[in-house]
Design a protein that fits this description.
The chain is of the alpha+beta class and 180 residues long. It is 43% helix and 20% strand. It contains 6 helices and 7 strands, in the order ββαβββαααββαα. The strands form 2 sheets. It has a 5-stranded antiparallel sheet, with helices on both faces. A two-stranded antiparallel ribbon has the order 6-7. Helix 2 (85-102) packs antiparallel against helix 4, helix 2 crosses helix 5 and helix 4 packs across helix 5 (137-144). The longest helix has 19 residues, at 161-179. The chain is elongated.
Length: 180
């Protein structure tokens, strides 16, 4: 009999090209890797097994692992051995595509480290405590990246000093550009 549950994901791991952790989130109360030492060991073995292959899915340590690599970053999505691979693939692709959009198609270690806050927010919008929340990358991106409020629309009396300075600077530069 199939055990129906919403908990689809055991872990999401991002490793660099040398197998070092960039980001890792392990989910669930029955986490098979509760300590940092066990997690590092799992990640090292997983990286060693996948770094030279071009596949997308493996069975490793009684877990279904879907992975994707780009330049110097490996994205891993870990689920139980009984989990639906197509669902896991949709989750991984949505997360990867959202990160790619947020980083303007520059998915590499440096840009991920520079924008780690956006990557973590995208992960949190995709998966919460092992439950897949969203599989549409455009929805994830829209929730993570809010357009910044244009300071020119805020009355000058309600702006901070820096915002008022920026607004004045922009207006003066606009006027100077119109004159020339």
């Amino acid at each position: 009999m199939v055990n129906l549950t919403l908990y689809t994901t055991t872990a999401v791991i991002l490793l660099d090209g040398e197998g070092n952790r960039i980001l890792a989130k392990y989910y669930g109360t029955k986490n098979p890797y509760p300590t940092a030492k066990e997690q590092k060991s799992f990640e090292k073995g997983l990286f060693d097994k996948t770094r030279r292959t071009n596949g997308e899915i493996i069975l490793y340590d009684n877990n279904v692992v879907l992975y994707r690599s780009n330049i110097d970053v490996f994205f891993y999505l870990v689920g139980s051995a009984e989990e639906n691979e197509l669902l896991l693939s949709n989750i991984l692709n949505a997360f990867y595509d959202a990160v790619s959009s947020l980083l303007r198609q520059q998915v590499e270690k440096r840009s991920i480290m520079d924008n780690l806050d956006l990557v973590v927010l995208a992960l949190d919008e995709t998966i919460d405590d092992g439950i897949a929340l969203e599989t549409d990358s455009s929805v994830i991106v829209s929730r993570v990246s809010r357009p910044r409020t244009d300071t020119t629309d805020i009355p000058i009396t309600e702006q901070t000093f820096i915002q008022a300075y920026q607004t004045a600077k922009e207006k003066i530069s606009e006027r100077l550009m119109k004159e020339f």
